[in-house]
Amino acid sequence: MSVENQILTLAELTSLVKQNLKRCFVFCLISVSLMLLGGLLFFYIEHCATTTKTIISKQQQGEVNCIKLCDQLIKYRNETHEIPSLVNLTATCSVECKVPVWRRECELNRAYFFMWTEYAMTVATTIGYGRFVAKTDLGKIMTIIYAIFTVPLTMAALSLCVSVIKYSTQL
């Protein structure tokens, strides 16, 4: 084989660059879309599945104690005959004390969305920093299924981007 046969013409190179650039754009768009959808998926599977104990102030601690007291009063009221002052106290308790200690933090905000999107990106690119991990069984199973589909697509997108750069430098 001679050197002349191995060198691509300028027209062939530009057509290869255009062809690979289109493919690269499509694969990157699909890959980024899957990463964003993965961020939503893992947010709702992992972040919304667990309850987190919130840090409460002294005022909130008083409200929590009020809730515990109201629960005990309601149990006591159900076990005994009705005393008018106890009825008034339980009615006041049920109106004023309604703050739980354990809360489900399932509000989608920018920080949590990007946290779980970063997790999806590390799974798709097989980096795996380890800052965020799936803790629930469903999250672990979905990570495996998610990786089966996104790793090949992401690697194909990266490979096409590299080929665009390679052919562009030969122009």
How many domains, as an integer?
1
Roughly how much helix do the residues carry, as a percent range? over 70%
How many angstroms separate the termini? 22 Å
Radius of gyration: 29 Å
Helical segment tally?
A: 6
Adjacency order of strands in the biggest sheet: 1-2
- Let me know the number of strands: 2
Beta-strand content estimate: under 5%
InterPro entries: 2pore_dom_K_chnl, K_chnl_dom
GO biological process, one term: stabilization of membrane potential
Membrane topology: Multi-pass membrane protein
Transmembrane segments: 24-45, 111-132, 144-165
Q: Care to describe what's here?
A:
With 171 residues, the chain is mostly helical. It has one domain (23-170). It is 73% helix and 2% strand. It contains 6 helices and 2 strands; from the N terminus they run ααβααβαα. The protein has helices at residues 3-6, 10-47, 58-79, 84-96, 110-124, 137-169; strands spanning 52-53, 102-103. It has a two-stranded antiparallel ribbon. The longest helix is centred in the first third of the chain and has 38 residues, at 10-47. The model has no long low-confidence stretch (mean pLDDT 79). The chain crosses the membrane at residues 24-45, 111-132, 144-165. It is found in: Membrane. Keywords: Ion channel, Ion transport, Membrane, Transmembrane, Transmembrane helix, Transport.
